[in-house]
Amino acid sequence: MRALLAAALLTGCALDASPETAPAAGSEASRSLVVSGIDWTLRWDTSGTERVPEGRRFTTDQGHVVTLTAGFVATSAVTLDPCEAATVTWLDLVGVGTAQAHHGEFEDPSLLELQWGEDLVDPADRTTSARFDPGSYCGVHWSIARPGPRRLGWQGNAKARISLSVSGTWTRGDEGGDFAWQSRWSDGQARALGEEVAPPARDPDGIYAVVLDRDLASLLDGIDLAVATEDQATWAILENLVGSYRAEITPSGS
To answer: What is residue 110's DSSP assignment?
Structure first.
């Protein structure tokens, strides 16, 4: 399956707000931001989950009590979405079919290729920063993709060809079982400024802090663990991850 997710961006956005004032959501000024630097924080929201000796336990919307004993997701990249692009597609950020992150058609200076293997049982906050020439941006984008064996220190790593891996056990009433799934697929979504992301107060230097919160408790939502195939389950997990993350932008103050 090819992951083709178009990140709809808003174009032609005027900037008419003062640096100290956050424009009203939905206004023209709220839909773009002149940015010259981003301090990123990628966090995991673990509310609704519990760390137990066997792993991380939570209950899905299907009523399965899940104990995740091992798991990771490969955060491929974070970037801002430039306003001058009518549409940035997922195929601009990762390779088709192989789903391997690369420097391709999308080479915006805000793009950070991270290739982070993020643990899902004991998740940790991660931070990174970028400084670049000022540009006008209309959103943020988080993407998942397998790094490939030649990418950024992943040589010889067994996880290098995998974008997602989860294993654990589940119960629901008298039913129960275990699962061990892996995927090589990619996924990603944008969050549009002024729509899904609240407009921040303007920073006179164009330096902003972006926090992405990913929800762990909804990881296996929508999946019938008794009958789901590996492909069905892993695609649903990727969709849950990129579909539920929240983004916040504030002046960095640095």
So the answer is: T
DSSP at 46: -
- 219 forms beta bridges with none
Bridge partners, 193 (sequence order): 197
Judge contact between 17 and 23, C-beta under 8 A.
yes
Cα–Cα dist 76/242, whole Å: 12
Sign of CA dihedral 135, 151, 44, 184: positive
**Looking at the whole model, is its pTM more than 0.90?**
no
Distance of CA 25 to the CA centre of its chain: 23
- Does residue 111 lie within any of the structural domains? yes
| Distance from C-alpha of 124 to C-alpha of 218, rounded to nearest angstrom | 17
* Residue-range definition of the domain harbouring residue 18: 6-251
User: What are 28-83's pLDDT values in tens digits?
Assistant: 556 899 999 999 999 999 999 999 999 999 999 999 999 999 999 999 999 999 99
Residue at 1 is within a domain:
no
At 237, give phi and psi (nearest 5°): -65, -45
